[in-house]
Design brief:
6-stranded mixed sheet, 6 strands, single chain, alpha/beta
């Protein structure tokens, strides 16, 4: 019996220990992931070229119908600018199914084992992602249940600022306050910020790690 050698891991799989980073942003009805509505969710996948340069890939975005009994704070609507009466929505289980299906496909294509969430104040997004997954009784959540990459922390280290708009400006990106607090827009800016930081670290010689003999 001949043992089949394992396929060579992709560069992105090697870079992140078998994880595929995926930027997630949610817009919600409040701060409590178990009681407050998920109103928007967006996922942005990443890709890495043969030179190890990380860039944004595809965006998946849904406006979500609040789950039955969900709490929605008026202050949250005023902050996000979401008009509940003038938007096309899908049920939460459809949004989550579609997001997870797309992410699983990208994980497989990249030769990774699992996805890992990138977020700006990432545990907030991860909490709502996991709560929605549990409500929808999804058995194959492709994301690591508690590990994540937080661009607020990374931006504090690299740029000295933790606010997304300010960090993007310091990174040389245009940032529109008018478009902010849209899940798709914020997820794409978060993805761009993460890519820039990872690529800059590579340019500075921080990756791949070389160990002196």
């Amino acid at each position: 019996m001949t043992n089949t050698p394992e396929p060579e891991k992709s560069l992105i799989a090697k870079r992140f220990r078998g994880f595929l980073p995926v930027a997630i942003d949610v817009e919600t009805g409040g701060f409590n992931s178990t009681t407050d509505a998920l109103l928007e969710i967006a996922a942005v996948t990443l890709k890495m070229d043969d030179d190890g340069i990380l860039t944004r890939n595809e965006t998946f975005n849904f406006h979500v119908e609040p789950f039955n009994g969900a709490n929605i704070e008026q202050s949250a609507l005023e902050f996000t600018g979401i008009d509940l009466d003038n938007r096309e929505t899908v049920p939460e289980h459809i949004a989550m199914d579609e997001i997870f299906k797309a992410v699983r496909k990208e994980v497989k294509s990249a030769g990774c084992n699992r996805a890992i969430l990138i977020g700006h104040n990432a545990h907030f997004d991860l909490g709502f992602l996991n709560a929605a997954s549990n409500r929808c009784q999804i058995k194959r959540n492709p994301f690591h249940p508690f590990s994540c990459f937080d661009t607020a922390t990374l931006s504090g280290v690299v740029f000295g600022h933790t606010v997304l708009a300010k960090a993007c400006t310091l990174a040389g990106f245009e940032f529109s306050n008018k478009e902010a607090h849209s899940a798709a827009y914020d997820a794409e800016k978060t993805a761009d910020l993460f890519c820039l930081i990872v690529n800059k670290w590579k340019d500075l010689g921080g990756w791949p790690i070389t160990v002196e003999e």
